[in-house]
Design a protein that fits this description.
This protein is of the alpha/beta class and 379 residues long. The chain has 13 helices and 14 strands. A hairpin with a 2-residue loop joins β6 (165-166) and β7 (169-170). It is globular.
Length: 379
């Protein structure tokens, strides 16, 4: 089966991991900090904090911005459930903003309308989580401007968009947000096995993220309440978690980061090839927005008879997939009151969506096999 996405591991990655295994620190050692500094530098953000997943990072980000049971979090329905679940972890109410049919990202026009209506009845969200779907940056500046006007904090879910650029800046620079989240799951752009990261330019948010990652415990004397009782002393200031990444994972991340541009370039090559090879087929191909440089995490086409095409390609050994079942249609969210028809653009898109395989290690031959199977399925 040709998968829809997979990691690309080389000998240097293996060496980097083994080196940490033979060192003094398997976790909470120096490699975590090196990885954080390298990612922050690459993105042009002041601070980066690793987590054991993007899901944990999203949860900690919501807590760092003080999301609570009285609050609301809005995100897009066209995302993985984690973008919404982070709000529910904090017992906040979750709602969605429908997507733009061209970019497949949260629509700034819909956002403006929904914010205006919410402001009138006093139900504005505390946090907005725009998602850079498939690696394509959202209309980040427009979204940030609206968020600022209504006093909404922004967490970019950039799980798909490591290495993407918006208006000439790296996604992760947090130019238009409070916090940006990356995922290093094996199907994403670069991997640490499991892993995630939160980036921010705000010193206070940074120290909250560090504390929340590790039980709410601090060792910095200046943050302590009352006297420092000695060298052994630490304080738990709030309820945190064990959301730490290991040094083993960070070593893999650092090593992968060296090849990030190679990964991105190969994805672009494959996307250009898909564009040529699929040009004559009755399918909608994805495109890159103006001023955006997509990381091309996913190659999503839209076609009629999607279920039949999916089954046909799977039977031919092509690991096509579907991104995403609109989050509000999940039974858990239906139990919270959402129903079909609530976000019609995301639902219409979903009924036609099909993700074709795309990953840095994909060969031209594998891609040709995907195209042949799609042609066959459509004929
Ligand atoms: C993968 C993904 C996540 C969760 O990432 P993990 O590292 O697996 O926790 C969150 N949001 C989006 C949009 C994702 O694609």
């Amino acid at each position: 089966m040709i998968p829809y996405g997979r990691q690309l591991i080389d000998e240097e990655d293996v060496r980097a991991v083994v080196e940490v295994l033979q060192s003094d620190w398997l976790t909470q050692g120096p490699t975590i900090e090196r990885f954080e500094r390298a990612m922050a530098a690459r993105c042009g953000a002041r601070y980066a904090v690793t987590f054991n997943s993007a899901t944990s990072a999203l949860h900690a980000a919501c807590l760092a911005l003080e999301l609570g049971p009285e609050d609301r979090l809005w995100t897009t329905p066209n995302t993985f459930v984690a973008s919404a679940n982070c709000g529910r972890y904090c017992s906040a109410a979750v709602d969605f903003v429908d997507i733009d049919p061209l970019t497949l990202n949260l629509s700034p026009t819909n956002l403006a309308t929904k914010l205006e209506a919410a402001a009138r009845v006093g139900s504005l969200p505390k946090i907005l989580v725009p998602v850079h779907f498939a690696g394509q940056p959202c209309a980040t500046a427009e979204i940030a401007e609206l968020a600022q006007r209504y006093g909404v904090r922004v967490i970019e879910d950039a799980s798909h968009a490591v290495g993407a650029e918006y208006a000439g800046k790296a996604v992760g620079s947090c130019t238009h947000s409070d916090i940006t989240i990356f995922s290093f799951h094996p199907v994403k752009i670069m991997t640490t096995g499991e892993g995630g990261m939160a980036l921010t330019n705000d010193a206070e948010t940074y120290s909250r993220l560090l504390s929340l990652r590790s039980h709410g415990i601090i060792r910095d004397v200046t943050q302590m309440r009352g006297a420092n009782e000695g060298g052994w002393y630490y304080q738990q200031l709030e309820l945190g978690y064990n959301y730490r990444m290991t040094d083993i994972q960070a070593a893999l991340g650092l090593s992968q980061l060296k090849r990030l541009d190679v990964f991105l370039e190969r994805r672009r090559e494959l996307v250009a090839r898909y564009r040529q090879l699929l040009a004559d087929l009755p399918v909608v191909l994805p495109s890159e927005g103006e001023g955006c440089r997509s990381a091309w995490h996913l190659y999503v086409i839209q076609c009629s008879q999607r279920a039949a095409v999916y089954e046909h390609m799977r039977a031919a050994g092509i690991g096509v997939n579907v991104h995403y079942i609109p989050v509000h249609l999940q039974p858990y969210y239906r139990d919270l009151g959402f129903a079909p028809g609530d976000f019609p653009v995301a639902e219409a898109y979903y009924s036609r969506a099909l993700t074709l395989p795309l990953y840095a290690g994909m060969t031209d031959d594998q891609q040709d096999a995907v195209v042949a199977a799609l042609r066959d399925a459509l004929s």
